[in-house]
Design goal:
Layout lengths: L3 H24 L15 E4 L2 E4 L6 H12 L14 E5 L5 H9 L4 E5 L6 H8 L5 E3 L2 E3 L3 E6 L8 E4 L5 E5 H7 L6 E4 L5 H4 L12 E6 L6 H10 L2 E8 L3 E8 L5
Parallel strand pairs: 3-4, 3-10, 4-5, 6-9, 10-11
Antiparallel strand pairs: 1-2, 7-8, 7-9, 11-13, 12-13
Length: 256
């Protein structure tokens, strides 16, 4: 009898998670899914608009679509109150921004993607949805970067370079473009988060963080936790993996 309650709780959580996934699919106009038979859809629906999807032929594209649009890994509508401004850093081809528009049809959404190879896909996928896209990197300071893009585009990295072809805006500037307050920051930028962590001021104007962290350059999980704490955040959800993981965080004084 003692071991039945945990199993029941696990089954309940699984059923709830499955229902949330089906709701996410219905919201995007996808009516059927079996993971082992999954193929990328040609189009989705967001805020009543049919969006024909454009993307490169990469395995990482499928991974990102499943994470952003099916599993809802960044927790749209979960533990979030009023969301009027959304900042998508590391937008890639735009799946998170599309999903965000489906959940928050009236929000102002800004999406940043520095990869010149991928930006046209982002622009095409979001242009009908009122999402502002920027072909820029984001860091602690303004500057220029180059791109190390040798595999799937969702693993491309920016490298600070005075001779780089891509402009970088400071995180503070990206926050100010959204009016000075970011209700939801989605961050997936293959290690560039560590540069953004150096600038404490803009983080004071961010109300929710949903991010993929990366343990490059000998960084550890403890570094991630301590850095977010120093920036004034507490972690509400933590999904570690090998060398990276997902974190949801809110300001330390927020009620959860």
């Amino acid at each position: 009898m003692l071991d039945r309650a945990p199993k029941a709780n696990l089954a309940t959580r699984f059923a709830e998670e499955l229902e949330l996934r089906f709701r996410a699919l219905r919201r995007l106009g996808i009516l059927f899914l079996r993971a082992k038979w999954f193929k990328m859809p040609n189009a989705v629906r967001a805020a009543g608009i049919r969006v024909v999807l454009h993307y490169p032929p990469e395995h990482g594209v499928v991974v990102d679509f499943l994470g952003c649009c099916v599993r809802n890994s960044y927790g749209l509508r979960r533990q979030l109150k009023s969301v009027e401004t959304i900042l998508d850093i590391g937008a890639n081809v735009g799946f998170f921004s599309i999903a965000a528009r489906a959940y928050y049809p009236n929000a102002e959404i800004h999406a940043y993607e520095p990869n010149l190879r991928i930006f046209p896909f982002l622009k095409s996928n979001t242009e009908q949805l009122g999402i502002k896209v920027y072909q820029e990197a984001v860091g602690a300071d303004e500057g220029r970067v180059a791109i190390a893009d040798e595999g799937d585009s969702n693993q491309a990295k920016t490298i600070a370079s005075a001779d780089g072809s891509i402009p970088q805006i400071a995180l503070q500037g990206a926050v100010e473009r959204l009016g000075g307050v970011v209700d939801l920051l989605k961050l997936d930028c293959e290690g560039a988060e560590w540069d953004m962590f150096r600038s404490a001021v803009p983080w004071r104007h961010i109300r929710n963080v949903r991010m993929e962290y990366h343990l490059f350059d000998q960084h550890t999980l403890l570094d991630v936790e301590q850095t977010l704490k120093q920036l004034g955040f507490k972690i509400t959800r933590f999904e570690p993996s090998a060398g990276f993981g997902l974190i949801w965080a809110v300001p330390s004084g927020a009620n959860t």
